[in-house]
Hints:
Elements: H1 7-22, E1 25-26, H2 27-34, H3 38-51, E2 54-59, E3 70-74, E4 80-86, E5 90-97, E6 102-109, H4 116-130, E7 138-145, E8 148-150, E9 154-156, H5 169-175, E10 182-186, H6 187-198, E11 205-210, E12 214-220, E13 223-224, H7 247-250, H8 253-262, H9 272-275, H10 281-305, E14 309-313, H11 317-334, E15 340-343, H12 350-375
Parallel strand pairs: 4-7, 7-10, 11-14, 14-15
Antiparallel strand pairs: 1-3, 2-3, 4-5, 5-6, 8-9, 11-12, 12-13
Helix pairs in contact: 1-3, 1-12, 2-3, 4-5, 6-12, 10-11
Amino acid sequence: MTTNPTSRDYNKASVLDAVLSHAPLTRNKLTELTGLSRATVFRAVEELWADGFLVDCGIDEVTGRGRRSTYLDLSGTAGHVAGVSFGVQTTGVLVADLRGREIQQVTVPTADHQEVADAARWLVDLIAQAAESAQGPLRQIVVAVPGRVRGGTEIFGPAESMKIFAGSDLHRAIEDLVDAPVLLDSDANAALLGILTDDATIANAALFSLSTILNFAQCTDHELARGSTPTFGDIGALSSGVGNEILDELLSTRGLLRFARKRGLDLERVEDLWLQPRADAPHAEVLQAFTTATVTAVSVVAVTLDPESVYFVGRLRPLVDLVLPQVRGRLDQILPAVPEIRTGPHLIGLSTAQGAVYACLTIAQKRLRDAVLGARHQSRLTERSTPAF
């Protein structure tokens, strides 16, 4: 027979929430943060400690008489999570504990896999490498990919060299190899989630990820928007405003390189467009086409989604920085109100993996809270054990 959580259970959950957000901290600080009575907090702490959720981690330095208060933290045995950025060129894995503290990161060139099962084993091995020093079980994996994702399992429209991962095979293959829940997401969603986590004031925003393919993400009221069909987010299929080119052909590394070479620029890599600027007509034509495509992309989301901010991340971000003054000038001429356009530091592989970790933490911390609410109804062991959730 199950029993609904009581006020005592919810008090424990409130104490745990404060620990997740502010640890290490003392019982007195918990009293201040939660607004609960000192006796309630102390009782909740003792129960959470007995359940294996909390540990003591040092002594508060106090002056005068009185008992020194111990600092509390989430137990390392509560587990860890892994965020993965599975890109065409670079793969990054970031492992963190359930408070979001980094344990280890790994960034490597992406191996060329011809079979989904081989790629899944390679990713799981990278996760194991990054989690070598982690304590407790692996609680959640989120893998961000260059494509659109539906339902956390199905990949649509991936980069050309990753077509074998379209569908749900990659999700199933990874889940078969690990004893933890697995979700897939787009690299754009992961990047935007990282921005939202770092800035709680953002309400409505759009993000363009300009890498091997053009990917798009959007948030409304600080929540990521997720469509119900594969069409949602396929903004790269729209016209760029330059001849017959679509946005993906001018706002992706693959497409822009192809466009530049057609215009007579013999580029070995797309970075040469901004690292080795030239004064010739072909170079100017490519920059003008990229500028027009950027104006078109921002205009589309401005008139349909009305975002306060538009972000650009990915390998082509430095080129956006180069043309941004012209982009803003042209937008001022055609839009009555121009959203704020932002670019920022973006570490290839790791920034997206960090966003994937944030997604992991949201899921794992909710399960942890649910476990606390149900802990009173589980049979108690005589010895402390790893929390089960």
